[in-house]
# Entry
Amino acid sequence: MDVDCEVSAAAAAAVTNGLGGGEQAAAAPVSADQLDVEAYAAQYSGRTRVARLLFIAERCGVEAIQLEALRMAHDEARAREDTVLYLDAVLKINSRLGPRYRHDQAWVDSVNRRAEQRKEKLETELNGYRTNLIKESIRMGYNDIGDFFYAHGHLSEAFKSYIRTRDYCTTSKHIVQMCMHVILVSIELGQFAHVTNYVSKAEQTPDTLDAVIVAKLRAAAGLANLETKKYKLAARKFLETGPELGSNYSEVIAPQDVAVYGALCALASFDRSELKSKVIDNINFRNFLELVPEVRELVNDFYASRYGSCLEHLEKLKPNLLLDIHLREHLGTLYNDIRHKAIIQYTLPFISVDLNTMASAFKSSVSMLEKELAALITENKIQARIDSHNKILYARHADQRNATFQRALQTGNEFERDIKAMLLRANLIKHDFNQKNWPGQRKMNL
Amino acid sequence: SPSRRDAPISPSRRSIPSASNRSFTLRRDSFVSSSANLRAHAGGDLLVTVADFLTSCSADQIRMAPDKFLNVCRVLKNEVMQLNAPIRGIAPLRAAVRKIQTSSEQLTPLHAEYLMLCLLAKQYKAGLSVLEDDIFEVDQPKDLFLYCYYGAMIYIGLKKFRKALELLHNAVTAPMSSLNAITVEAYKKYVLVSLIQSGQVPSFPKYTSSTAQRNLKNHTQIYVDLSTCYGTGSYSDLETFIQSNAEAFQTDNNFGLVKQVLSSMYKRNIQRLTQTYLTLSLEDIASSVQLNTPKEAEMHVLRMIEDGEIHATINQKDGMVSFNEDPEQYKSSEMVEHIDSSIQRLMALSKKLTSIDQNISCDHAFLMKVQSGRERARFDYDDFDSVPHKYF
# Structure
């Protein structure tokens, strides 16, 4: 544990930022030298590469990186002949990158024309197959159309086409293929309920699945859980992802991401024993953690109660993680949860804690720490009381005996009150208590 | 001599010419004509005569002609109101209540009148003697509402907010087919006292009449808004709200209560601090509770300690407050007695409940309803386990 008592202003500021500035739409504090856009983009393929590049360009505050990302996005979109993404990139570039990156309507039109032609061809073929009623051909026809739509950015049409292949699937391999396609499109559409649905469909097929496919399904499930804020489930799924995943799923997720997402979600939601058994002792997951040594370090730090250094690592990673398309919205919550967990775990074994020591361990000021502790106590996450005069935190265990007496007496009072009220009401109803009887009618039972 | 054509007086009584007997017949016949006649008959001081009569009349005889008796009481009440001396009516009316009641659990029309006099005379403790009896029998709805309302006001005057809340709760949740003004006023006070007592207004329990549930809030909108404002926890917001609506509260005669609601917010916030801190500086208390100076914080804490609302000690030298645990150890003999008496009381109540339940099971109307329900819809026999089959 760090005994360093000097709290540098910058560290304190960094920690205050760590308390949840992740949702801001304003530019995140990027350490520009850290993000290598090319290397980052190289991890991904397909549409997600372009989408991520555009995301980075939007969120990053540094113009150099922004332009770099946009340039790469533009080139990629052009190479893929995806006019929708191309137009998006061009719009954002806004003529800042020179003549080659200006809006080229002629190219757009020619691509669209060719796409139209291809589409007609595919559709005629499909109709042909449908009249012939050959299941396999119809299935492949729909698949081809789905692929076509996907490549050109018409995601909902792609989704519909892939769904339609369901009626023509004959083997479990077909079903799995369909599920994978649907999952891919749903992730990009942001419809994670479908993702979870189709993952379970794929997992239920009778044939044993290829290990790579299993890993892909787990990763996709983890992603769906992450996006729907089910962090504990997400952590479990990511941790169960086999190392066979490698870079086979680059159109969705990179293995580094699995490591980062899994580790962060686990830290935020697991207790110590789960953390040890599922993360630290998990041999399969170790392969992923090796890819991101910083994350591995911080998990170990957390488990070894080196909270100061753990939180420092988190801060260092924060700017880059904010540029991640899936993690950005959840970063604030996850960081908060991790920090609170650290504080709670720190205070757990002690009867009394000196707030000064604790503040230096967490690299924050005493007054701020006191406020955080007060909030956690109010939420009943820590059983303690603060001696503000001497700056000590005392563990507090409620006196069971007194509490029981108090509760018993209170229950007695409530019972008495409720029964009396009820008897009164019963009596009122019994006398056919009715305001229509008011004027005049006066009965006194003698 | 006055004829005896109305109330049948038993022969035995007729033969004993007691003072009360004679007064009774005198009064009785006076009222056959009009109450103005009473003045003529009584001569002298009307008030003293009637008061005497009320205190010394015989309960049995009274109960044979309750309406007339009630009229007499009403005359008394009007008289003291006219003389602007409500306190003079308290003792006689209390005696009257006791005489006309068939049991201490019965509510009479006199209860409300008596409580009203106590309120006007500010003799709250006198009202307590009648309020302490629990009411289980009610004939007239109007009596109940007024009784609950005035009774609650007496409890509020004595700062017994929990008992006040019970009465107001009964007024608000009583069965009713249409809203009446008393219930509306009762609800206004219910909101205010709930806020003082527990910091929030509970939602209507499901046995509340649908009339009340649908309409009460419409007639009491600023009170509902007040409770929402209270919920935000901001003293300054609440203060502004109260000041901008001060006139409305004044018209309802609720301004005093509203001021108590405002000061209760400080109390609640300070109490929350006792759960989190062992010691806290007066400055920190002031800032977290939104008071202006540590001196004010000290004043509030001091008052709460005196009222027994928190257990704490103030160290003026350091400007620190130490919050202590509740010293009650539940080991003293007083506590044992208290627990024992509570147990006895509750057992008696439970017995009463069982006997009423049994009575209802044997009640003809109930059995008819159960039987017709059984014929109409094929229910399981298990649904009607509690009904003794031999009564069918």
Remarks:
- Confidence is low (pLDDT under 50) at residues 1-33, 433-446 of chain A.
- The first helix of chain A runs from residue 9 to 18.
- The CA atoms of residues 97 and 127 of chain A lie 45 Å apart.
